[in-house]
User: What shape does this take?
Amino acid sequence: MIASERRRYILQALSQRGIVSLKDMASEMGTAEITARRDIEKLEKEGKLRRVQGGAASLEDAEEAELAMQQRLTVKRQEKAAIAAFAATLVEEGDVVFLDSGTSMIPLAVELLKRRVTIVTNNTMFFNYIQNPTGRLIMIGGEHIAYYEMNVGVIAQDMIRQFSFDKAFLGCSGLDLPNRRVCGTELQSVEIKRLVLAHSQKKYLLLDSSKFEGKGFMKVCETSEFDQIICDRFPFPEDEKPDNLVSIS
Assistant: This one.
């Protein structure tokens, strides 16, 4: 792929996704990361995108893209807390539970670590919230992506294959309601989610109502693969609601 084709590909990806990672772009275009980085730098100089940590954002999404994961904890805080409280009721003493990356899992982790359960996660944000836990926390290792505060890659996948989870709680970047698809935006995170689903007995998707308008260029799975989809509220007519969706408000 020549330079002009690569840059056109990057811009097209941004128009669809809003945010792209450097690693994903290099992989999809079949080029080295340093080449993809140079393409992004040139496009930024031309005023066509804005660089963010680990990748690039379209100009209209740049401000949102630069919100740190810690700052995102304040977004929909009450809704996430309510969802976590409901999700915690689904976990029993002794369960082995997988918790996904992302800020939606933080209030659930805080609650579950008070109980005698085992949490397995690739979410490195949890380290900031562990205070004399009763539960056990097992951290999945691998390649660390600082922007998303998660571990991914081959090592992470090999570790996940060693487990059989009683329950798994996953997040998403968006839910494509008309097509009943759960979507993601980060390639390696999507791979982790799919693998966890294959190793879990009960599967739950947690999302606040803003995710119904979220972006995601990759399909994680069908909505029917989850035992329950748990949200704070369903902002559409009842006849459009998936059968397995639970609105807690």
Observations:
- The radius of gyration is 18 Å.
- The chain has two domains: 3-65, 71-247.
- The mean pLDDT is 88.
- The first helix runs from residue 3 to 17.
